[in-house]
Amino acid sequence: MRIMISDSKEYHPISPRFAGAVFFAIFALLFLLFTKYTLLSLRDSALLPLLPSIPISIITGAFAGGLFGPALAKKSRWSRPFIIGVLIACLSLILGSLGVLTHYYLSDATFLNRFHQWQDHIVFYGLILLSLTMTIGIWLIPLSGLVAIYFNKHFLPGLLKTDQQRLKSLNQTKSASPHDD
To answer: What is the pTM assigned to this prediction?
Structure first.
Protein backbone atom coordinates (compact mmCIF):
# COMPACT_ATOMS: atom_id res chain seq x y z
CA MET A 1 0.00 0.00 0.00
CA ARG A 2 1.54 3.29 -1.10
CA ILE A 3 0.19 6.64 -0.02
CA MET A 4 1.27 9.87 -1.69
CA ILE A 5 2.62 12.50 0.70
CA SER A 6 3.71 15.07 -1.84
CA ASP A 7 4.01 15.28 -5.60
CA SER A 8 7.54 13.87 -5.75
CA LYS A 9 7.75 11.60 -2.69
CA GLU A 10 5.91 8.38 -2.05
CA TYR A 11 5.21 7.00 1.39
CA HIS A 12 6.37 3.44 1.99
CA PRO A 13 5.22 1.78 5.19
CA ILE A 14 7.87 0.21 7.39
CA SER A 15 8.86 -3.18 6.11
CA PRO A 16 8.84 -6.04 8.65
CA ARG A 17 11.94 -7.39 6.89
CA PHE A 18 13.85 -4.12 7.43
CA ALA A 19 12.57 -3.70 11.00
CA GLY A 20 13.55 -7.29 11.80
CA ALA A 21 17.00 -6.82 10.26
CA VAL A 22 17.73 -3.69 12.29
CA PHE A 23 16.20 -5.09 15.49
CA PHE A 24 18.09 -8.39 15.38
CA ALA A 25 21.35 -6.74 14.28
CA ILE A 26 21.22 -4.58 17.41
CA PHE A 27 20.25 -7.62 19.50
CA ALA A 28 23.19 -9.59 18.06
CA LEU A 29 25.62 -6.79 18.85
CA LEU A 30 24.33 -6.45 22.42
CA PHE A 31 24.44 -10.20 22.93
CA LEU A 32 27.99 -10.31 21.56
CA LEU A 33 29.09 -7.71 24.09
CA PHE A 34 27.27 -9.55 26.88
CA THR A 35 28.90 -12.82 25.82
CA LYS A 36 32.36 -11.37 25.45
CA TYR A 37 32.48 -9.67 28.81
CA THR A 38 30.21 -11.87 30.94
CA LEU A 39 29.93 -15.46 29.77
CA LEU A 40 33.41 -16.17 28.46
CA SER A 41 36.35 -16.15 30.81
CA LEU A 42 39.55 -14.26 30.02
CA ARG A 43 41.18 -17.56 29.12
CA ASP A 44 38.64 -18.17 26.35
CA SER A 45 38.89 -14.67 24.92
CA ALA A 46 40.76 -16.05 21.90
CA LEU A 47 37.66 -18.07 21.01
CA LEU A 48 35.71 -14.89 20.36
CA PRO A 49 37.97 -12.03 19.22
CA LEU A 50 36.06 -8.77 19.53
CA LEU A 51 37.07 -6.87 16.39
CA PRO A 52 36.21 -9.57 13.82
CA SER A 53 33.19 -10.62 15.86
CA ILE A 54 31.43 -7.25 15.71
CA PRO A 55 30.78 -7.17 11.94
CA ILE A 56 30.05 -10.90 11.92
CA SER A 57 27.43 -10.54 14.66
CA ILE A 58 25.81 -7.50 13.05
CA ILE A 59 25.66 -9.16 9.63
CA THR A 60 24.38 -12.42 11.11
CA GLY A 61 21.72 -10.62 13.14
CA ALA A 62 20.63 -8.50 10.18
CA PHE A 63 20.53 -11.56 7.93
CA ALA A 64 18.49 -13.58 10.43
CA GLY A 65 16.16 -10.67 11.19
CA GLY A 66 15.66 -9.90 7.51
CA LEU A 67 15.03 -13.55 6.74
CA PHE A 68 12.59 -14.19 9.57
CA GLY A 69 11.15 -10.66 9.97
CA PRO A 70 8.09 -11.21 7.76
CA ALA A 71 7.32 -14.48 9.56
CA LEU A 72 7.62 -12.76 12.93
CA ALA A 73 5.35 -9.91 11.79
CA LYS A 74 2.33 -12.20 11.47
CA LYS A 75 -0.17 -12.11 14.33
CA SER A 76 0.03 -15.33 16.32
CA ARG A 77 0.22 -16.81 19.76
CA TRP A 78 3.46 -16.63 21.75
CA SER A 79 4.66 -20.12 20.76
CA ARG A 80 5.16 -19.34 17.06
CA PRO A 81 7.49 -16.36 17.56
CA PHE A 82 9.33 -18.28 20.28
CA ILE A 83 10.04 -21.17 17.89
CA ILE A 84 11.15 -18.72 15.19
CA GLY A 85 13.46 -17.09 17.75
CA VAL A 86 14.95 -20.50 18.57
CA LEU A 87 15.53 -21.04 14.83
CA ILE A 88 17.23 -17.65 14.62
CA ALA A 89 19.49 -18.63 17.54
CA CYS A 90 20.38 -21.95 15.90
CA LEU A 91 21.17 -20.19 12.62
CA SER A 92 23.30 -17.66 14.50
CA LEU A 93 25.22 -20.42 16.28
CA ILE A 94 25.88 -22.21 12.98
CA LEU A 95 27.05 -19.03 11.27
CA GLY A 96 29.03 -17.97 14.33
CA SER A 97 30.81 -21.32 14.36
CA LEU A 98 31.67 -20.82 10.70
CA GLY A 99 33.02 -17.39 11.61
CA VAL A 100 35.23 -18.82 14.37
CA LEU A 101 36.48 -21.56 12.03
CA THR A 102 37.24 -18.98 9.34
CA HIS A 103 39.09 -16.87 11.90
CA TYR A 104 41.25 -19.87 12.79
CA TYR A 105 41.94 -20.53 9.12
CA LEU A 106 42.94 -16.93 8.45
CA SER A 107 44.92 -16.25 11.62
CA ASP A 108 47.08 -19.41 11.75
CA ALA A 109 49.04 -20.32 8.61
CA THR A 110 49.83 -23.84 9.84
CA PHE A 111 46.22 -24.57 10.80
CA LEU A 112 45.42 -26.40 7.56
CA ASN A 113 48.51 -28.60 7.88
CA ARG A 114 47.15 -30.17 11.07
CA PHE A 115 44.26 -31.81 9.26
CA HIS A 116 45.05 -34.73 7.02
CA GLN A 117 41.55 -35.67 5.80
CA TRP A 118 38.44 -33.69 5.01
CA GLN A 119 36.62 -35.40 7.91
CA ASP A 120 39.02 -33.67 10.30
CA HIS A 121 37.62 -30.28 9.21
CA ILE A 122 34.06 -31.45 9.87
CA VAL A 123 34.97 -32.84 13.29
CA PHE A 124 36.74 -29.62 14.24
CA TYR A 125 33.76 -27.57 13.07
CA GLY A 126 31.48 -29.82 15.11
CA LEU A 127 33.62 -29.25 18.18
CA ILE A 128 33.47 -25.49 17.69
CA LEU A 129 29.69 -25.67 17.25
CA LEU A 130 29.34 -27.84 20.34
CA SER A 131 31.51 -25.56 22.46
CA LEU A 132 29.64 -22.44 21.32
CA THR A 133 26.32 -24.15 21.96
CA MET A 134 27.38 -25.19 25.45
CA THR A 135 28.78 -21.78 26.41
CA ILE A 136 26.73 -19.27 24.45
CA GLY A 137 23.76 -21.28 23.19
CA ILE A 138 22.45 -22.01 26.66
CA TRP A 139 21.77 -18.28 27.00
CA LEU A 140 21.19 -17.39 23.36
CA ILE A 141 18.49 -19.92 22.49
CA PRO A 142 15.88 -19.04 25.16
CA LEU A 143 16.78 -15.35 25.07
CA SER A 144 16.31 -15.21 21.28
CA GLY A 145 12.92 -16.85 21.69
CA LEU A 146 11.89 -14.22 24.23
CA VAL A 147 13.27 -11.40 22.07
CA ALA A 148 11.30 -12.74 19.10
CA ILE A 149 8.13 -12.69 21.21
CA TYR A 150 8.90 -9.09 22.19
CA PHE A 151 9.44 -8.19 18.51
CA ASN A 152 6.12 -9.82 17.54
CA LYS A 153 3.96 -8.55 20.39
CA HIS A 154 5.38 -5.13 21.27
CA PHE A 155 8.17 -3.73 19.11
CA LEU A 156 6.78 -4.09 15.57
CA PRO A 157 3.15 -3.20 16.45
CA GLY A 158 4.40 -0.13 18.33
CA LEU A 159 6.63 0.85 15.43
CA LEU A 160 3.78 0.48 12.94
CA LYS A 161 1.43 2.47 15.17
CA THR A 162 4.00 5.26 15.51
CA ASP A 163 4.48 5.26 11.74
CA GLN A 164 0.71 5.57 11.21
CA GLN A 165 0.54 8.47 13.65
CA ARG A 166 3.40 10.17 11.82
CA LEU A 167 1.55 9.71 8.54
CA LYS A 168 -1.63 11.13 10.06
CA SER A 169 0.20 14.23 11.31
CA LEU A 170 1.87 14.70 7.91
CA ASN A 171 -1.49 14.48 6.16
CA GLN A 172 -3.01 16.97 8.62
CA THR A 173 -0.21 19.49 8.13
CA LYS A 174 -0.42 19.05 4.36
CA SER A 175 -4.16 19.69 4.31
CA ALA A 176 -3.84 22.65 6.72
CA SER A 177 -1.18 24.44 4.66
CA PRO A 178 -1.85 24.36 0.91
CA HIS A 179 1.16 24.60 -1.41
CA ASP A 180 1.63 27.75 -3.46
CA ASP A 181 2.17 26.88 -7.12
So the answer is: 0.77
